[in-house]
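Data deposition worksheet. Section B asks for the primary sequence of the deposited chain exactly as it was used as input, without tags or linkers unless they were present during the calculation. Section C holds the resulting structure in token form. Section D is free text for depositor observations; keep each observation to a single sentence. Incomplete worksheets are returned to the depositor.
Section A, Depositor: J.P.
Section B:
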Amino acid sequence: MKTQYKSKDNNFDTTIALSDVTPADVVRLLDTQSYFDLLNIPYPTTQDGVIERFLSEGLITKNKGTYHITNLGALLFAKDLNKFDNLKRKAVRVIIYESKSKLKTIREQIGIKGYAVGFTGLVNWINSQLPANEVIGEALRKEVRM
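Section C:
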């Protein structure tokens, strides 16, 4: 597997993030299950069905007997962005500062998953960092984010 940085049309989305991978590598590196879950469509019964769908969406491209994973496919569905050398620095990063000034950092979270597959986890982590009040009603306690 080689990394390649240029595409024919110089479009970032269609630039190759990882070249010459097998269908098994595509499934190993990209969270194909999440793709089908997010679109609410059934997961194909064969690996070829998964590959065909990813080809039709431009998430991968075909090159003779192998495949290339595009930047779009990797950025959205990577199980680990660190596996893609030219995309490591594009991982989501959330920083919590002590005040409005950026002088003192309280906490930092760097994601490793692709944007689409990591979004729910990211939002849950951000919500867990927000201050909250506990409101006690007549019989139930409810946590309300500020």
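Section D:
The first strand starts at residue 16 and ends at 21.
The mean pLDDT is 88.
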